[in-house]
Specification:
Length: 337
């Protein structure tokens, strides 16, 4: 059911103790006598819920706690404290049953057998997940076509390019029709063609099969193309949970209006916008949507000048998120959708 809550996270924490190592002879003695450590709060008191069928971007800078969260969700790590229920199971307690309903792709760590051809890894996974043979072949045929796997199905995994291996890993993670898929940097290091193929496949699995997907990535074009909702985490704290468009509206900065005039004008300034480029028949303006709308500005331009063409550009999501990290815009401003 679309409205069913499939993931419930409440006051989740994961803390690590990093022991301090003292160097030198005296330091070695200190290491034996007393053990000092630093407490690292990788995930610190986060709460959120995800409904069945959602495709959610989970964002944050390096070391923010994204991968730690995914590893707890997938049952690889046990939380320090808090509540975590996924599809009715506690991941680290019901692991054997739980893994049959999830798929996971963790960046550049492959789940395939390194020296075996891709197809043989898939065959092994069929037995591990006890997949009926007809269901296995139907899924494999569909995924081969969508991910263009035919050219390397009989190639050992160690001989695959990064793009080929990532496509094979995503196929492997979904062969058993999991309800939930965790993707950690699925397009890292890939070229444009490989990225588009993987993005299209992710969209297909989410929309056509209803797979719930959590995506972490540093490539924010992935988020822009795939996600309507994002979670932002930094230094272990969840700072934002809401719509991508709402995030852009609040923190995206100024929009750009690009105009081509029908003739050359000496001056093309207008009220409510900052003229940043004027070159012959072309001009670019910056404007704040909170004070002036695009339609208002276009009306003012049309009243004063003859216009051949124009375009309104939204701020790039990458610039928006960079501003949030660098200027810590969400530190004291917790938002909710």
């Amino acid at each position: 059911m679309p409205n069913k809550i499939i993931i419930k996270v409440s006051t989740l924490r994961k803390h690590f103790k990093i022991y301090k190592h003292h160097r030198g002879m005296v330091g070695a003695l200190r290491n034996l006598v007393s053990r000092q450590y630093q407490l690292i709060k990788a995930v610190d008191d986060i709460s959120f819920q995800i409904k069945s069928g959602e495709l959610v971007g989970y964002l944050g800078p390096n070391g923010a706690g994204k991968s730690t969260t995914l590893k707890m969700l997938s049952g690889l790590l046990v939380p320090t404290s808090g509540e975590l229920v996924v599809n009715g199971s506690v991941p680290w307690q019901d692991r054997q049953t739980y893994v049959g309903d999830i798929g996971a792709v963790f960046g550049q760590r492959t789940a395939l057998w390194w020296d075996l051809p891709v197809i043989e890894s898939f065959d092994i996974l069929r037995h591990i997940y006890k997949l009926p043979i007809d269901r296995y072949h139907a899924n494999l045929k569909e995924f081969q076509d969508l991910l263009d796997l035919d050219a390397f199905m009989n190639t050992p995994v160690r001989s695959l390019s990064l793009g080929q291996r990532m496509r094979a890993d995503i196929c492997a993670a979904l062969l058993h029709d999991p309800k939930l898929l965790f993707l950690d940097e699925p397009t890292i290091g890939l070229d444009v063609v490989a990225k588009d193929r993987i993005r299209n496949f992710i969209t297909h699995m989410n929309r056509q099969k209803g797979t719930t997907i959590i995506l972490t990535t540093h490539d924010l074009s992935d988020v822009e193309k795939l996600c309507e909702r994002v979670l932002i985490i930094d230094r272990g704290k969840l700072l934002y949970d809401g719509g991508l468009l709402q995030l852009q509206d609040r923190f995206g900065g100024k929009r750009k209006l690009i105009v081509e005039f029908s003739e050359i004008y000496k001056t093309v300034s207008i009220e409510g916008a900052e003229l940043i480029v004027h070159n012959g028949q072309f001009a670019e303006y910056l404007f704040d949507k909170q004070t002036s709308t695009a339609s208002e500005l276009i009306g003012r331009l049309s009243n004063k000048y003859r216009i051949r063409d124009l375009e309104v550009r939204e701020p790039e999501i990458e610039n928006t998120v960079r501003r949030i990290y660098e200027e810590r815009l969400l530190d004291s401003d917790h938002l909710s959708s």
